[in-house]
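Changelog entry: the Outer membrane protein assembly factor BamE record was regenerated in this release. Current contents:
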Amino acid sequence: MRSGGFKVISAGLVLALGALASGCSSIRDHRGYIVDQTLVDSVQPGIDNRQSVERTLGRPTFASQFGAKDWYYISQTVKTPPFRKPRTSEQTVLRVQFDQAGNVASIDRRGMEQVARLSPNGDKTPTLGRERSLLEDLFGNIGAVGAGGMGQAPTGPGPNGS
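Regenerated structure tokens:
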């Protein structure tokens, strides 16, 4: 009886540890366009146009607003470790360039080299100027608004002046 109880307790302990360990795994999330390499390879420069690219790859994630009207298809995989901020682990930016006639001029692909890792300087952003307290922000302008022209009638050409 004693060894049977030990087996049940040890099996329960193993299951509990397994459940705890599975709760600490990273969450993987895909965002944006799902790249299908076969479809991307089927788009040919000089042969395809905007309409055929849209039929093959779908609507772009966004189109450029300035200069040439390039189409961009963006795909990201984001991992979120337990108790931490999400981080981009994979990224693909597919750019389709068109010529003046609307035909595909070129297709290029970029990856993680385009991701900028920023590390902010602490919790505060340094600003120019002097440090002011909350009371100075609230009451600092009392008496300053309109103090230079108080009680004087407008002069000169204008709707209220002569």
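The radius of gyration is 31 Å.
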